[in-house]
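F.,

This is the one I mentioned.
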């Protein structure tokens, strides 16, 4: 029996596998529903400790479209690490289901769950990474630009889980990555070095700076996210002050390359990281990006459970 694989980080798949999955997702979007059923007869546990719109719906619909069955488990049902040990939860679920999708705040708990589970575990979001979001983002760029190699992505905002996954994923497919954040909120040097080590091509750049205006020059993609993520509500006022001037608006977009895409993983806080109307801006692909969560995640599950 082959060794099971998990998807806790974008680094859990190789650069070649990343590109192969993106091509597979792009192709599989065109298949009629019911034609591709690699999860037929399989069940997936969806384990969440925080509310969700896009993640829950895209996974549950995706599992069904692949022929599988999902079981949703909220915080009250499991209480991972509190109501009972993570190892016990992992061992019990491994006897019931073929895969575990976990949206858990604490990345260490997801890692522990994967360590003890005998079935694949997918990180649907943690405080460290959001790998499924990054795969959907790359898929969206690939569809709109028809390539990834040589493109430049600029992330404006907090060096959060989304920024970390993008920083690690973009160089692996030949994309330059730049982030602009206030002092104290940017990505750490260890992560940047890890991202550079994954670069597909010696010319790929990975860098950080503080000026949004400077960061977007030459960008083919301008990406932003909320300044205070879920669980950081107590820091909201301090972050609003720190991130003043980091709002992505039409004026900032004009500094990027002609035809640059605007991206946001949502939910959006209008008047903070984006000006009102930015998700409907002519250069915005935010809604196709959200819809691609479904297709990217279907391909990830197909890969982990059938090896395709």
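My design for it:
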């Amino acid at each position: 029996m082959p060794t099971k694989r998990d998807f806790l980080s974008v680094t859990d798949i190789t650069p070649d596998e990343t590109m192969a999955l993106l091509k597979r997702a792009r192709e599989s979007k065109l298949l009629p529903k019911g034609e591709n059923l690699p999860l037929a007869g399989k069940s997936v546990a969806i384990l969440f400790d925080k509310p969700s719109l896009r993640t829950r719906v895209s996974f549950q619909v995706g599992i069904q479209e692949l022929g599988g069955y999902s079981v949703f488990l909220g915080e009250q049902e499991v209480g991972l690490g509190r109501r009972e040990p993570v190892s016990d939860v992992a061992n019990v679920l491994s006897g019931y289901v073929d895969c575990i999708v976990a949206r858990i705040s604490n990345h260490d708990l997801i890692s522990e769950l994967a360590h003890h589970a005998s079935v694949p575990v997918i990180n649907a979001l943690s405080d460290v990474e959001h790998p499924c979001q990054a795969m959907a983002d790359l898929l969206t760029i690939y569809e709109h630009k028809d390539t990834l190699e040589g493109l430049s992505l600029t992330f404006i905002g907090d060096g959060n889980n989304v920024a970390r996954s993008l920083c690690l994923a973009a160089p692996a497919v030949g994309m330059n990555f730049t982030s602009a954040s206030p002092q104290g909120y940017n990505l750490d040097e260890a992560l940047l070095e890890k991202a550079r080590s994954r670069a597909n091509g010696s010319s790929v750049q990975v860098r950080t700076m503080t000026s949004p205006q400077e960061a977007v020059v030459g960008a083919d993609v301008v990406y932003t996210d909320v300044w205070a993520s879920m669980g950081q509500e107590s820091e909201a006022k301090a972050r609003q002050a720190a991130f003043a001037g980091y709002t992505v608006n039409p004026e900032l977009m004009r500094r990027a390359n002609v035809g640059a895409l605007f991206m946001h993983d949502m939910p959006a806080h209008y008047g903070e990281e984006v000006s009102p109307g930015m998700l409907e801006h002519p250069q915005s692909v935010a809604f196709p990006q959200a819809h691609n969560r479904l297709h990217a995640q279907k391909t990830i599950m197909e890969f982990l459970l059938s090896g395709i």
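Residues 10-130+293-306 form a domain with the Rossmann fold fold (CATH 3.40.50.1370).

Talk soon.
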